[in-house]
């Protein structure tokens, strides 16, 4: 029965891998599926998100395998593009904003490079990622941090407002 339900869920989420369903809490996946695909909340998003999360331009958001974005109250603005690597985890209330207002004329928007987040990254609760940011593989963004620039290193912890490099992390032990 569980196998059949996983296959049905996988049919509706083109980007959700079968292993991701089995490796996650199955009942959470089923609940999110019901809310998104039956109740039609965030129904245009082809990956699982919490019903309290807002997603702008989901068609411009790419993600790798094992993308964990089902935390509460996130805001994902993909209008200029967001590319998530494999095994990326988002904490609650994370804001990822790929487009900004023109500072001379607020009714217009500026175009920026897409946000790129490497493999095996964890974005802590309440962190904010701003337009054009790039994060290298195995980057941990501390809770409440505001990331305004590129951090292309690997195995790193960044924190603060604005975020700065804090320390090197040991090699990620299980990943893609």
Describe this entry's structure for a reader:
The chain is of the alpha/beta class and 176 residues long. The chain folds into two domains: 1-47; 49-168, 3 Solenoid (UDP N-Acetylglucosamine Acyltransferase, domain 1), CATH 2.160.10. The protein has three helices and 16 strands. The strands form four sheets. A five-stranded parallel β-sheet has the order 1-3-6-11-14, with no helix packed on it. A five-stranded mixed β-sheet has the order 5-10-13-15-16, with no helix packed on it. Helix 1 (2-12) crosses helix 3 (26-38). It is globular, with a radius of gyration of 16 Å.
SSE layout and pairings?
Blueprint: H1 2-12, H2 18-23, H3 26-38, E1 54-56, E2 61-62, E3 75-77, E4 82-84, E5 89-90, E6 95-97, E7 100-101, E8 109-110, E9 115-117, E10 122-123, E11 128-129, E12 134-135, E13 139-141, E14 146-147, E15 156-160, E16 163-168
Parallel strand pairs: 1-3, 2-4, 3-6, 4-9, 5-10, 6-11, 9-12, 10-13, 11-14, 13-15
Antiparallel strand pairs: 7-8, 15-16
Helix pairs in contact: 1-3
- Along the chain, the helix and strand elements come as HHHEEEEEEEEEEEEEEEE
Structural class: alpha/beta
Q: Strand share of the residues?
A: 25-35%
What shape does the CA trace take? globular
Radius of gyration: 16 Å
* Counted beta strands: 16
CATH superfamily of the largest domain: Hexapeptide repeat proteins
Tell me the major beta sheet. Answer: 5 strands, parallel
């Amino acid at each position: 029965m569980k196998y059949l339900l996983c296959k049905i869920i996988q049919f509706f989420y083109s980007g959700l891998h079968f292993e991701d369903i089995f490796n996650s809490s199955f009942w959470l996946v089923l609940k999110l599926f019901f809310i998104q695909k039956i109740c039609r909340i965030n129904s245009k998003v082809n990956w699982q998100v919490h019903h309290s999360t807002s997603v702008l331009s989901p068609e411009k958001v790419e993600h790798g395998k094992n993308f964990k974005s089902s935390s509460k109250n996130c805001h994902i603005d993909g209008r200029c593009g967001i590319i998530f690597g494999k095994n990326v985890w988002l904490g609650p209330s994370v804001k990822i904003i790929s487009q900004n207002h023109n500072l001379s004329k607020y009714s217009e928007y500026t175009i920026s490079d897409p946000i790129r987040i490497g493999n095996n990254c964890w974005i802590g609760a309440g962190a904010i990622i701003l337009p054009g940011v790039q994060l290298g593989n195995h980057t941990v963004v501390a809770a409440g941090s505001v990331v305004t620039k590129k951090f292309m290193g690997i195995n790193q912890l960044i924190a603060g407002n604005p975020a700065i490099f804090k320390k090197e992390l040991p090699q990620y032990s299980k990943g893609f």
